[in-house]
Every structure is written in C-alpha cells, then in structure tokens.
C-alpha cells in the first residue's frame, strides 16, 4: 500500500477526506495527519509518505511553502493541494511548485477517486525495482531469504499486482522494447537479454503493434504463461527465455511461445549417435543428425535441445570428459551460428571429419609419450589451450612439452595450433557464408584482428581475399 499524509488545520476536513473514499481499494492507506506545514515536515521525515494531501491556507507555514520545502528533502512525494479557494493564481502556483493535482472543497468522491487512480499509476511506473529483490526473486530462495523477499515484494505492491495476473516477456537484443503504459518491471537477465513482467493486456497491446516498431537488434521475443503467484516468476521467466530463442530455431525474428517438444525421440537418437561414434559408423551418425535437424525444422525442439545436441555431440566426438559438459551457452550458440541449421551443418562436418579421420587424426610420432598429447591438441585446438593446460592434463613439465613439439613436429606448440585453426577457417570460408568474426570465434580466436593477421601470415591472403578467390561450390 502507498502511504498518505493529510495536512489541514481543520480536523473535520481531515476526517471528512479520510471517510470519503475507500483508500485501500485504490492501493493507499492514510498513515498520518498534521495540522500545519511545520508538523507536516516532521511527519514526512518520520513516515516517508508517498502522497501528501495539503491545504493551502494554514498557520505558520502554508501549503505552497510545504510543497517547496518538501521537494528539497530528497524524497519522491506526490503533493495534492486541497483548497476552498477556486482561484487560478493559487492553482497555477501550486502546479508550478510540482503539485500533482488541485482539488476544491467540499470534496467530490469521484474526483478524489480519479486523482488516486492516476497517482497509483504514476507511482507504479516510477517506483524502481530493487536489484537485491530481483536477485532474490531469480535465485533459489528459502527460510530467511524468502521472508526478506516477501517483505520487499509487499513494500513495492508487487504481491497484490501479481494476484491480478501477469505474464513474463523476454526479448533478445541489447535494445529495450517500446513499453506500454502502466506498470512494467524490467530485469536485465543477460548481456543482450531483458525480461519484462506486465499484465496480459499490456503484453497484447505491446506485441500487437507489429515487428516494424521493434528496435532493429531485437532477434526474438518469448511470451510466457500468465501467473498469479510470485513463486512462479523464476520458472515463468525461464520458459519465456527459452521461447524467445525460437528465433534461432526458426531462423527469423518473431514472437514465440514454448512449442510442444519431442524429447523422447531426441534422447533416443543422441544415444544412437554416441554408440555410432564409438563404432566409427559415420553413416549412422549422419542419419541421426539428419533426423534431429528435421525435428528442429518442424519446430519440435527448442534452444535447450540445441544446447544439448551441440555440447553432447562435441563431447562424444572429442571425448572431453565430465569436466567439459558445458561448452557453449544459449547466448554463445546464437552468437556463433546464425541459426540452428548452420549449427547442424557444422556438427555434421565435424562428425564426418572425426569419424572418417579426415583431419582430426594427429600425425604419428615415434615418441609414444608425445602421441597422446599431440592427439589431444589436434582434437581440441578450438579451445583456449596453453602449455600449462597440457602440463596439468598429462602431468608433465610445460617446458618439456614445448621441447617435444619442436623436436617431434618441427614447430612450436603455438604455431601447430595456429595451422590447425587456419586450416579449419579455410574450410569454413569455402563452404559457408558465416561472417569472418563468427568463423574466428568458432576456431578459437576471440580477437578478430589477431585472427586476420595469423591467417594472412599462413596463407598470404586476408580471410576476405581467400573467400573471394575460393568461391563456394
């Protein structure tokens, strides 16, 4: 509830205003009263009201002076002037001082009700959402944390608001959506992702305006289910988040809801891929990847499934072990690939290379100690590897591993990794239309300019020149 302070030197006026309307119905409570401006300033300091109803003509300090001084106290207060004088000069001065409304005595119930409704909307929209409250809301809560969160939600009037029914909307992109009038809670949930909580009517009004009004960088919008319990917010935002990423599955911007998915089929086919990779059966691997891609095209899978398919397949192919269960997040997948079709093309190529041992097989070395290291680097060159990583992996001195590379391969560890990366970049440039920045990230280079220098050093051409001289077949 928003707190109200009523200021008037005539007590019957105060009681009349208190009894005139159902304050709670409008989201307010009369928390205090004062007989003059001086008392009012003391009460404001003590109770921190959201709204002050004040008379203009009072002893010691009039209402206009109260508004002026109240505005300098560093508090966000809405002042409403109540007066028995219908004089334009009073009203003009009160409004110039920042009064939200000017009401005449005797009071009219409809007029005061209308003022309260407008004040509530203004306060709802202006009230900042506390970051610590939102962190608690999105994290797992319980015990004292839950009590603290409930208190915050109550203070901000969110508990009552949720009971009326709200929906989560998640937008992927750095820009913000053009928001509808009324209360909307905004949460930054990623580097380029925002969640909004609003009423169902607001969501329909906002999303019904058409994509041409969206900021250009908005890739997708996910619409969650209506909820009436604060405990459902975290899960509802996660569902809307997954729905928003259907733009990656569909390959185009749009407003999406969660589809009906075919998890059982996917689980079965991933198991077949795992077994086929172990048996070096390229035909079965490709067959199942084709079937999974068909499910994506059908819209029967989500970004969560794309996350699983990509990371699990990479793990199967390169035997990364349990420590590498998460390779790319939702955001990273969307940044690396234009859509899920491009992601599946990449997986099929990698699977073909590995299972057929076309380029994933390391050159043989006479040094049996060095062979496992060489094979590991050959299979994992896209990762951010260092000599220290290899030393930790194989329990050897990094200087000794460096010497082995020079002796057995004829070049440094860094040069060997660069050759593998550039060779893969050449293949990607020849067969796809991914941006050079995306290709650089796929092969392990986060710095575009560094990648370009390395590429030109090894091939004699920039990536752009190479693509122009090696057109796609």
Written description of the protein model:
This protein has 23 helices and ten strands. By secondary structure, the protein is an alpha/beta fold. The chain starts with a strand and ends with a helix. It folds into four domains: 125 residues, Response regulator (Rossmann fold), CATH 3.40.50; 120 residues, Alpha-Beta Plaits, CATH 3.30.70.250; 101 residues, no CATH class; 41 residues. Strand 4, helix 4 and strand 5 form a beta-alpha-beta unit. It is elongated and about 100 Å long. The protein has a five-stranded parallel beta sheet, sandwiched between helices. Helix 13 runs antiparallel to helix 16.
β-strand number: 10
Main beta-sheet annotation: 5 strands, parallel
What is the percentage of strand-forming residues? Answer: 5-15%
The mean pLDDT is 82
Assigned CATH superfamily of the largest domain? Response regulator
**Per CATH, which architecture of the largest domain?**
3-Layer(aba) Sandwich
State Rg. Answer: 32 Å
Shape: elongated
- Record the strand order, biggest sheet: 2-1-3-4-5
Class derived from helix and strand content: alpha/beta
The low-confidence parts are: 320-327
Number of domains: 4
Brief synopsis:
Its main location: cytoplasm. With 473 residues, this protein is α/β, with parallel strands linked by helices. The protein is 53% helix and 12% strand.
């Amino acid at each position: 509830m928003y707190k109200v302070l009523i200021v008037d030197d005539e007590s019957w006026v105060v009681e009349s205003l208190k009894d005139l309307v159902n304050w709670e119905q409008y989201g307010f409570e009369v928390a205090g009263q004062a007989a003059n401006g001086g008392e009012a300033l003391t009460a404001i300091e003590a109770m921190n009201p959201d709204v002050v109803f004040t008379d203009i003509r009072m002893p010691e300090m009039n209402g206009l002076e109260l508004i002026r001084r109240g505005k300098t106290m560093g508090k966000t207060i809405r002042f409403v002037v109540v007066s028995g004088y219908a004089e334009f000069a009073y009203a003009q001065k009160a409004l110039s001082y920042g009064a939200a409304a000017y009401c005449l005595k005797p009071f009219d119930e409809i007029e005061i009700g209308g003022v309260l409704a407008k004040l509530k909307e203004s306060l709802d929209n202006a009230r900042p959402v506390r970051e610590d409250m939102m962190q608690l809301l999105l994290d797992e809560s319980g015990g004292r944390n839950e009590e603290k969160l409930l208190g915050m939600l109550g203070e901000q009037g969110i508990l009552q608001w949720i009971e009326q029914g709200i929906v989560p909307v998640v937008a992927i992109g750095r820009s913000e959506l053009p928001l509808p009038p009324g209360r909307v809670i905004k949460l930054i949930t990623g580097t380029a992702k925002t969640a909004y909580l609003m009423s169902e009517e607001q969501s329909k009004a906002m999303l019904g305006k058409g994509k041409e009004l969206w900021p250009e960088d908005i890739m997708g919008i996910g619409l969650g289910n209506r909820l009436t319990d604060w405990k459902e917010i975290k899960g509802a935002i996660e569902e809307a988040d997954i729905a928003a990423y259907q733009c990656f599955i569909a390959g185009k911007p749009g407003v999406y809801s969660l589809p009906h998915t075919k998890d059982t089929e996917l689980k079965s086919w991933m198991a077949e891929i795992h077994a086929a990779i172990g048996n070096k059966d390229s035909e079965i691997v490709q067959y199942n990847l084709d079937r999974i891609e068909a499910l994506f095209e059908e819209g029967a899978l989500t970004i969560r499934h794309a996350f699983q398919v990509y990371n699990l397949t990479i793990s199967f192919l390169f035997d990364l072990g349990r420590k590498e269960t998460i390779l790319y997040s939702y955001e990273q997948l969307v940044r690396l690939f234009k859509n899920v079709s491009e992601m599946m093309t990449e997986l099929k190529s990698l699977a073909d290379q590995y299972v057929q041992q076309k380029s994933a097989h390391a050159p043989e070395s006479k040094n049996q100690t060095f062979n496992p290291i060489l094979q590991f680097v050959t299979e994992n060159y896209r990762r951010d590897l260092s000599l220290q990583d290899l030393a930790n992996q194989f329990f050897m001195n990094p200087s000794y591993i460096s010497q082995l590379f020079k002796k057995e391969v004829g070049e440094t560890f860094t040069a060997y990794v660069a050759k593998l990366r550039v060779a893969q970049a050449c293949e990607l440039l020849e067969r796809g239309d991914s941006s050079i920045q995306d290709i650089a990230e796929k092969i392990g280079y986060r710095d575009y300019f560094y990648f370009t220098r390395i590429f030109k050093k090894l091939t004699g051409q920039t990536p752009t020149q190479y693509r122009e001289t090696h057109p796609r077949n």
